Amino acid sequence: MSRRDIHSVFYAESYHPIQAGSIDGTDILPHDNAVYRALLCSSAGLYDPMGDPKVIGDPYCTVFIGRLSHLTTEDTVHKVMSKYGRIKNLRLVRDIVTGASRGYAFVEYETEREMCRAYEDAHHTTIDDCVIIVDYSRQQLMPGWIPRRLGGGLGGKKESGQLRFGGRERSFRAPLRPIPYDDLKRLGIPPPPEGRYIHRLKVPSPPRRKRSSVDKEEMSLKRSSKHSEEHAHRGSSREREDRHHNKSSVERNDRSRKRSSVDREESYYKASTAEREDQYYQRSSRDREDRTHKRSVDKEEDYYRRSYADKEDETSKRSSRDGEKRSRHHHSKQAYNPESRSNSRVHSFDH
Fold first, then answer.
1. What is the three-class DSSP state of 125?
2. DSSP secondary-structure letter at 174?
3. Confidence at residue 351, expressed as pLDDT on a 0 to 100 scale
4. 205: which DSSP letter?
5. What is the dihedral of CA 81, 82, 88, 93, to 10 degrees?
6. Model confidence, pTM
7. Run of H or E residues at 156
8. What percentage of residues in the chain have a pLDDT greater than 90?
């Protein structure tokens, strides 16, 4: 069995009780008493889907909600399902005798688009801790429909032993055995769409309303008017964009000119200040060098002058000290000479 066959499924477009009881849609015999009962109702025409007076509204705008809690009220369903569109009508099915909820409801929306949004997004969401199922109104839109109370319906649980296939919750599996086309044709059962299976994770589309010629003309007129409005809007938007672009380009040019002039002035002032600073630093450095050189020269000259004056002072001091020494030495010689003493004594006696 290939992986493609495992995930390939198809859905029933019309209802047949024997086919609904088959997992792959190829059974030709009913396998439980409920299927017999549904087949009897279908063949004898005992059920009229349009005979229920409580069924009102547009079926193409109505969704079926199943597996609701028996404690869920209309207000809760309205609050949850109103997230997907404007609700026109809501009917929670209740027991005729007790008035208790039977666990399913029908919600009618204003448009088909809102119905499709709820059909796609609300499936398997939670209301009052119960995971719900959402489907289209098969009672009005599916040919040959038989409800669950008469042995038909779709889905179901394994515990009940009455599973029904072909719906959104339980689809038909792609057949793995030869398809008995002759027997299916004899019983009026549509054969599986061999070669046109879809993936099991893909959401099946609900039936669409058949458009009449008048509706098609109205839709074409609406589309043409919408197209003309969009064209006019695009033209006006283009004109606004062109004006805005021209205005913005002029403003950008003005800003660029102003910026360029300001940048030039700033660059000029920066350059002039930088040049002045360079000149100032160069002048100050030259002045400092000249002053330092002059100071060094002055220091050298002062040093030489001082050293010369000190030398002269020293030489004069030396000469004066030498003269004093010589004079003291001369006097000392005279004082200690005997001849001079005798002569001085003779001279003193002569007098």
1. coil
2. P
3. 45
4. P
5. 30
6. 0.60
7. none
8. 45
